[in-house]
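User: Here's a structure from my thesis project, written as structure tokens. My advisor, Dr. K., wants to see whether a designed sequence matches the one we expressed. Can you design one independently, without my sequence as a hint?
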């Protein structure tokens, strides 16, 4: 009996355990089933969400057409830069009224010829200074100085000791025989100083003051030249006045635009680069970016790179001993700071140049490298340079020589449909004047005084507000025939005496009209004024608004109002 009772209890215990285990297993399975159902439901929802988004999201091709650069400005809004230019001008690639003007630099009837004025025993030698374009200005002025002194000019000696460290001589950059031949009616040019009498006469070294007038040459140089027979004018950059009569200004133009031709090898390589650009697009922009470390250091500007930037650029700035302490905020307010590559790109997009525009960039080492260039590349992906257009083998003969490389950039920039400069240096000035002389091809100079505050405040506006302001501020800075007063700026950038209006051609004034130009005296700098740097950059801060003698301005419409004043200030800095 006890055994039967024990078996019943034991069976009852097993039954209870089985029930507990069954309940536990059922709970576990039920929880797993619910978990799986939840996962499945979530997965379905996610798939549905992606399916809905794919219906409304643009394809990559559409996105490229809609947006080229996207700048996040704040938590509430975004600054979308359109891919299309949304042009505000009828033709971005030509200047208004350009067909009504032409270069005119032939010598006047009363301009004395070489054989009637050159003294047989007077020789002038010069030593240029700086980079390619600074040296070019020295060569041009040397011809005029020799004419003033009734002397023979010895082929100029180029600068081999400056920052550029280029040992090229004149004949390795320019066609010497053409130079001599073309100027034969203006001055006599020889390749080397001859032996006078029975012995070689060493030239007497003279340093001419900056902005020296014809009278200054007569007083300071001529007596020495008469006595010594040969003078050597050293560091010959900007040693001739900006204010000369029309005949001498036209001589400057004949030298600059006709007598100075690059060698066949340089011109041939430059033409090849231009052809490569033309094969890619009917029109192209050339941009002289000038955002190298030395340029930024000299400018004294600050671009937000913190202590690293201040230290690096500050160390480079020590190269110029006479530079005052920099005030970045003041420099930016006065429009003296080069725009960043991104800012240049935004300016061009606002002016109407779209994402399909082809751009040739003439530049050295960019401060910040590819990271700095990335926003410009995003805005203009058709981005080219010497290095991308030519092979290493083709560039090999030029690479060791900075002036020859600069000459290649000069040729492409000169041949471009639109030239954009980011500074007021020598290449910018020389090319601006050349493009005016040969048909007023568009030359865009950023109006830094107005654009810099706009860029600093762009986080607080939309593209639709930003772009019209850029276009407004750039009026007077686009290379139009009627932008500048005669005599304003350096003559090399505004060769008024050498540009004539075609007879009988009506000019569309579009709000422009003749303006009275007051007589302005050129400020003569003191001899002890600081020397220009080894940079190919304009350090001259003298006021340069000059009324040229005999300049006819009645037929040339000029822009009036506040924008005209700003242009004058820009070219006077």
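Assistant: Designed independently from the structure alone:
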């Amino acid at each position: 009996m006890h055994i039967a009772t024990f078996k019943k209890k034991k069976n009852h215990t097993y039954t209870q355990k089985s029930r507990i285990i069954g309940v536990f297993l059922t709970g576990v399975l039920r929880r797993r089933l619910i978990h799986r159902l939840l996962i499945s439901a979530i997965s379905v929802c996610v798939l549905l969400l992606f399916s809905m988004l794919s219906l409304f999201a643009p394809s990559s091709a559409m996105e490229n057409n809609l947006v080229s650069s996207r700048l996040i400005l704040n938590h509430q809004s975004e600054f979308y830069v359109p891919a299309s230019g949304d042009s505000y001008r009828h033709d971005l690639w030509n200047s208004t009224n350009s067909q009504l003007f032409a270069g005119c630099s032939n010598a006047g009837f009363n301009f004395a010829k070489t054989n009637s004025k050159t003294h047989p025993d007077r020789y002038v030698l010069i030593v240029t200074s700086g980079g390619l374009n600074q040296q070019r200005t020295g060569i041009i002025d040397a011809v005029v100085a020799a004419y003033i002194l009734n002397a023979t000019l010895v082929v100029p000696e180029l600068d081999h000791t400056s920052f550029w460290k280029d040992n090229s001589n004149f004949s390795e950059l320019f066609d010497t025989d053409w130079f001599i031949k073309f100027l034969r009616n203006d001055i006599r040019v020889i390749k080397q100083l001859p032996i006078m009498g029975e012995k070689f006469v060493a030239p007497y070294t003279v340093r001419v003051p900056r902005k020296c007038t014809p009278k200054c040459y007569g007083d300071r140089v001529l007596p020495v030249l008469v006595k010594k027979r040969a003078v050597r004018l050293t560091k010959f950059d900007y040693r001739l006045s900006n204010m000369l009569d029309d005949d001498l200004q036209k001589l400057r133009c004949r030298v600059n635009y006709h007598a100075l031709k690059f060698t066949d090898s340089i011109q041939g390589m430059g033409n090849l680069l231009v052809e490569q650009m033309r094969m890619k697009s009917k029109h192209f922009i050339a941009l002289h970016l000038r955002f190298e470390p030395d340029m930024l250091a000299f400018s004294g500007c600050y671009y937000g790179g913190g202590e690293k930037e201040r230290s690096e650029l500050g160390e480079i700035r020590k190269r110029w001993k006479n530079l005052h302490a920099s005030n970045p905020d003041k420099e930016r307010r006065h429009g003296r700071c080069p725009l960043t590559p991104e800012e240049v790109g935004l300016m061009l997009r606002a002016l109407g140049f779209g994402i399909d525009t082809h751009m040739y960039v003439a530049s050295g080492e960019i401060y910040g490298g590819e990271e700095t260039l990335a926003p410009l590349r995003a805005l203009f992906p058709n981005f080219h340079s010497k290095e991308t257009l030519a092979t290493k083998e083709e560039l090999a003969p030029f690479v060791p020589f900075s002036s020859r490389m600069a000459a290649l950039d000069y040729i492409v920039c000169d041949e471009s449909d639109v030239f954009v400069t980011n500074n007021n240096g020598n290449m910018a000035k020389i090319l601006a004047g050349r493009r005016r002389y040969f048909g007023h091809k568009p030359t865009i100079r950023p109006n830094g005084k107005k654009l810099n505050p706009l860029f600093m405040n762009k986080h607080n506006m939309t593209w639709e507000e930003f772009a019209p302001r850029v276009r407004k501020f750039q009026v007077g800075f686009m290379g139009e025939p009627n932008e500048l007063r005669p005599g304003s700026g350096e003559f090399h950038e505004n060769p008024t005496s050498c540009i004539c209006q075609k007879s009988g051609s009506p000019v569309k004034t579009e709000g422009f009209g003749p303006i009275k130009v007051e007589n302005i005296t050129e400020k003569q700098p003191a001899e002890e004024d600081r020397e220009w740097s080894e940079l190919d950059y304009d350090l001259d801060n003298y006021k340069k608004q000059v009324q040229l003698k005999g300049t006819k301005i009645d037929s040339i419409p000029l822009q009036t109002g506040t924008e005209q004043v700003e242009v004058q200030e820009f070219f006077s800095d």
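When you compare it with your expressed construct, this may help: The chain has 22 helices and 14 strands.
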